[in-house]
Write a structure and sequence with these properties.
Radius of gyration of chain B: 20 Å
Number of strands of chain B: 2
Distance between the termini of chain A: 61 Å
Structural class of chain A: alpha/beta
Number of helices of chain A: 26
Largest sheet of chain B: 2 strands, antiparallel
Number of strands of chain A: 16
Oligomer: heterodimer
Order of helices and strands of chain B: HHHHEEHHHHHHHHHHHH
Largest sheet of chain A: 8 strands, mixed
Largest interface: A-B, 65 and 59 residues
Radius of gyration of chain A: 29 Å
Shape of chain B: globular
Chain lengths: 731, 316
């Protein structure tokens, strides 16, 4: 690069890829692009290492990204964080982290990632970039100002210049309106007492009332911590005039209230603040050849305010997108083939959501509460939807992979072609479920992996080949409709009968709207495969609602008859599976005898599946599973094994509702389980007979074995936890 | 009697015809469905469908009656779900299903009615099935958008129109299109009928929203200001806030039954209601002129006048 004192308009360099900003997003993007062999110039306005307001505490998602970059030494030298301690209730609550987080000083972190980019061949220059260089309406480069002034030309520009991105403004994207802004400010402190290796999250008070945000203490070593506050502006709450004042008060208050924990806190250096980049818009991630990454693309998590994980992963994603487009056959207007906003939206479920309604509700609750603590654990009975979804709301990126469902694993062995079609279906399902409605994508994605949806979808694909055709696009679309329909009653059921308080009212709004969303999408997928298929989907959703109504009416009936249970199972999973077979055989113009046999097979298989799913709920594999079974018993939901246990053991009706855990273990060791297993096997047997009559084998036969296998695996896992398998924690 | 003459009584006949034999094994669900279907609705959507079918070459096709039942069932399904969403106690002076039988029963009743309407419409042809499914997704998206904007003092006119376009106008648009299409109207006529349904739906919803703000319980069977209490900021409120921004902070905290009269008075002092009314009149005129361009559009014009004329006159 030419250094000297060129004219402000002189061209000082011309590169293939220019990355502006050497934070986590810019450097990880530059590292990946350089690895691919692109000519990359990375620029930053400051010399390195340099300090930054946010960060230090990094989540396990960031840890994984850093491991991928090969920064294992940096990770090894940092503090391992084993849990999150929250101070919102009467006493602190510790939530252990499944995979540890880390604390790394931001200056070292950024330096580390930058060094990886340089090792891989990117060049670095300290330059202050003022904005895009536009000629005849086309961006051709950027203009630099400051000690080195001039123009830089580039084929691709990655704008990773932070939350207050000058390139973003220069490309005509507006900053968020004042009442949608969020801020954070931090201060390094020395603590008198040794710090525990946890992320501490503390309510944030301003003049006695709680702000919409939280304060934190992140330990960098035994006695040094990053203490900070982050908050959202809200019209419903008094907004503090000065962030530094709030931080100061917060540290004083912390010293007083938590003196036994931290001792005195001595401030080191100056506080440093920044706006949070929580205003993601898919349409504002790209302007011609300028691709935005990290905070410049506003990808910070809009509830927690965590931005580094998305910046690291997002930077790498932008690199993949840019690499594919630059090396493709698109020519000078390569960027027209790029849809970066959509890709980021898909990669990070939360950022594209309209979560403001959630923040406003919280702010109103805070305003009404005065000084009473507001944050609390969700009560499963008052908010079944939020309770069942809480784990994915808290960690939207920990959704299990779609290809780990039992049926997918089975098909990989028995029928790889069908497994591949199922994967194609999963990809389109993820797109179909991308709605800005808050928490809906997480709720839908996590439900999608649970029975009976994946099995029903596989049945469509398998049946669609029986007439001789391949699992084509139409079959995949129709299968998606069936898979979505499988979730429909689950959400309807998550309403509360008599909502009390705003929490359960919101619960009902979310449960109903997400149910309507999913049935509408199911119908649309079906309709695109044909009106008859849409009609069958409509009729099946009627049957499923009838089944759920039986379940609702029978709730708490201790002497419920097994026939009522089996009838509901036929109407729900039986009807869904029969629908699947019907769609598949119709699409492949299967002969009537085979179609009829498959319909019978599917009906029986559906019932067997329902029995297995319900028995597995009685053998929970983890804490979340235990919550589910407890809730079921408390609500008085009697499934086949429980009904049989009541019928043949000395369990009295009053056990229902009282001490659910004791009841659960009584059921587990009762003869009810064997009877349920027997019924399940009998149904599978009937299913296999239907197959035999039509001369069908292969994956169909293997699927018929699956329900009983799941029950046996769940029982074994309880007896020997080390043998817990993926199949036991679903349902 | 030609099938096209679906006046209120014969529509009821069709309605029970298409539900006969259903739900014989599910008395609870059957009772809940009956509760909703017979809660005194005006059957506006099937009548709209029916009137739009006049524009086609075959206004006596049997598919018209089936589609008319389907749109009414879809509408009733939305009502059942709306009552859960709004946590409503009364609808048209009667206890709602969600109060009488619980929210889960109401949710399932809505689910069943929707499924049944989808099954019925599938018999009306490929185009009808696709149209119906598209409409179902748009109705839900509109409602979701409204929920996203709850308690937002910065809700924009654009977002309001997007929401009501989805949740209300879509169903009238669908009704008109299904009616015209079932009667074998030309594609251009079907599209014009659909546009007329959409304009009508927008005017209808704006008037409903104004009525909630300015009329008392005696007239509408609803409590005035219900939307404000639930945090739904409708068009007159959005316009009112432009004039009286000082009301925004109070709205952000939420309106309580105690503060409602002050808030209502504050909004009524502005020209918000008059501006919203002006808008409603504009869409009503548009709907009427679109209807007049349709072949044999007189019935539709009459229906539009009947449904919108009275509230327009009352609220002006």
């Amino acid at each position: 690069m030419t250094v000297g004192a060129p004219e402000p308009t002189a061209v000082i360099d011309e590169v293939e890829v220019l990355v502006v900003g050497a934070g986590p997003a810019g450097s990880s993007c530059a590292a990946r692009l350089a690895e691919y062999g692109h000519d990359v110039l990375l620029v930053d306005q400051y010399p390195f290492p340099r300090h930054k307001p946010c960060g230090d505490g990094i989540t396990d998602a960031s840890v994984q990204a850093l491991e991928k970059l090969g920064l294992c030494d940096l990770l090894a030298d940092s503090i391992e964080i084993g849990g999150v301690r929250t101070f919102f209730g009467q006493k602190p609550k510790l939530r252990p982290l499944d995979r540890p987080a880390r604390c790394i000083a931001r200056a070292q972190l950024d330096q580390g990632i930058l060094s990886v980019a340089l090792e891989r061949g990117a060049r670095f220059a300290q330059l202050r970039i003022d904005g895009p260089l536009i000629e005849d309406g086309t961006v051709v480069g950027v203009s630099a100002a400051g000690t080195v002034a001039g123009n830089l030309l580039a084929r691709c520009i990655v704008a990773a210049d932070g939350a207050t991105s000058r390139l973003r403004r220069g490309c005509g994207f507006l900053p968020p309106p004042p009442d949608r802004r969020a801020y954070a400010v931090r201060q390094y402190v020395c603590s008198e007492r040794p710090l525990a290796p946890y992320f501490d999250l503390v309510p944030l008070l301003h003049r006695g009332s709680e702000l919409l945000g939280y304060g934190w203490v992140f330990p960098l070593d035994d006695h040094t911590a990053n203490v900070g506050i982050g908050y959202y502006r809200s019209r419903a709450l008094p907004n503090p005039p000065s962030l530094n004042r709030v931080l100061n008060d917060f540290i004083d208050e912390l010293t007083l209230r938590e003196n036994a924990r931290y001792g005195n806190l001595l401030r080191v250096g100056k506080p440093l603040g920044s706006p949070l980049a929580v205003d993601f818009k898919a349409a504002a991630c790209q302007f011609q050849r300028v691709l935005f990454a990290g905070d410049a693309a506003q990808t910070t998590e809009p509830i927690t305010g965590e931005g580094i994980g998305n910046a690291l992963h997002g930077g790498a994603l932008v690199a993949e997108v840019a690499h594919a487009a630059l090396t493709g056959s698109h020519g000078p207007r390569w960027y027209e083939s790029v849809a970066l906003g959509r890709q980021l939206d898909r990669a990070f479920l939360r950022i594209g959501q309209d979560v403001d309604v959630f923040k406003r509700a919280l702010a109103r609750r805070l305003a009404a509460a005065g000084e009473r603590p507001v944050m609390r654990r969700t009560d499963p009975r008052a908010e079944p939807f939020f309770s069942a979804t809480a784990h994915v709301i808290a960690a939207p990126y920990e959704l299990p992979a779609l290809d780990r469902t039992p049926v997918h694993l089975l098909l990989e062995e028995e029928d790889p072609e069908c497994a591949a079609a199922l994967e194609a279906l999963n990809t389109s399902a993820l797109d179909e479920l991308l709605t800005p409605f808050p928490f809906a994508p997480e709720a839908l994605h996590s439900r999608l992996r649970m029975d009976p949806g994946p099995v029903a979808a596989s049945l469509v694909l398998l049946a669609a080949r029986e007439g001789g055709g391949a699992a084509d696009r139409t079959a995949v679309t129709a299968a998606l409709g069936v898979e979505l329909l499988g979730m429909f009653p689950d959400f309807l059921r998550q309403t509360v009968d008599r909502p009390v308080g705003e929490g359960s009212k919101f619960n009902n709004i979310f449960a109903i709207l997400i149910a309507d969303y999913v049935v509408g999408r199911a119908l649309r997928s079906g309709a695109s495969a044909g009106a008859a298929i849409a009609g069958a989907i409509g009729a099946t959703s009627c049957a499923m609602c009838e089944a759920e109504m039986i379940e609702r009416v029978d709730r708490g009936v201790a002497n419920r008859s097994p026939q009522r249970y089996l009838r509901a199972a036929e109407l729900r999973d039986g009807a869904l599976f029969e629908l699947a077979a019907g769609i598949g055989t119709r699409l492949s113009a299967c002969d009537p005898a085979t179609s009829a046999a498959l319909a019978r097979y599917c009906r029986e298989l559906g019932v067997a599946h329902r029995i297995a799913t319900d028995v597995c709920v009685l053998f929970p594999a983890d804490a979340r599973g235990r919550e589910t079974s407890e809730r079921m018993l408390q609500e008085g939901c009697l499934t086949l094994a429980t009904i049989e246990a009541f019928a043949c053991e000395s369990l009295a009706p009053e056990h229902l509702g009282n001490d659910p855990m004791a009841l659960l273990s009584a059921i587990q060791s009762s003869a009810g389980i064997e009877r349920a297993l027997f019924e399940c096997e009998a149904r599978s047997q009937l299913a296999e007979e239907a197959l035999g009559a039509a001369g069908l084998t292969g994956a169909f036969a293997a699927l018929a074995e699956l329900p009983a296998e799941r029950i046996r695996a769940a029982i074994e896992a309880l007896e020997d936890p080390s043998r817990a398998s993926a199949s036991s924690d679903r349902g | 009697m030609p099938a096209v003459e679906i006046e209120a009584r014969s529509f009821e006949g069709l309605l029970s015809l298409y539900l006969t034999g259903e739900l014989e094994e599910s008395p609870d669900l059957a009772a809940a469905c009956k509760h909703i279907l017979q809660s005194g609705g005006k059957r506006l959507r099937p009548r709209f469908l029916e009137a739009a079918s006049m524009a086609g070459a075959e206004p006596i096709a049997p598919a018209i009656g089936r589609a008319a039942v389907a749109v009414e069932l879809f509408h009733c399904a939305s009502l059942a779900h709306d009552d859960v969403i709004d946590d409503a106690t009364f609808r048209r002076g009667k206890e709602t299903v969600s109060v009488r039988r619980g929210a889960i029963a109401a949710a399932l009743t809505g689910g069943w009615l929707f499924g049944r309407s989808a099954a019925l419409v599938a018999d009306c042809g490929e185009g009808a099935a696709v149209r119906f499914a598209e409409a179902a997704t748009r109705v839900c998206d509109g409602q979701m958008l409204e929920v996203c904007d709850l308690f937002d003092p910065g809700r924009t006119e654009k977002r309001y129109f997007e929401a009501i376009g989805g949740k209300t106008a879509t169903l009238f648009e669908l009704s008109a299109a299904l009616g015209a299409e079932a009667a074998s109207a030309t594609p251009a006529t079907v599209e014009l009928a659909a546009e007329c349904g959409w304009s009508f739906g927008i005017a209808f919803q704006i008037l409903d929203d104004i009525s909630d703000l300015v009329e008392n319980a005696a007239f509408t069977g609803k409590t005035a200001g219900k939307d404000l209490l639930q945090g739904v900021h409708t068009l007159p409120v959005i316009y009112g806030l432009e004039e009286a921004p000082e009301l925004r902070d109070a709205l952000a905290v939420g309106v309580s039954p105690d503060s409602l009269p002050i808030m209502l008075a504050g909004i009524r002092r502005t020209a918000g209601v008059a501006r919203a009314l002006h808008n409603a009149r504009g869409y009503a005129d548009l709907a009427r002129s679109q209807a007049s361009e349709l072949p044999r559009g007189e019935r539709l014009e009459e229906l539009i006048d009947e449904a919108l004329g009275a509230p327009l006159a009352r609220l002006s």
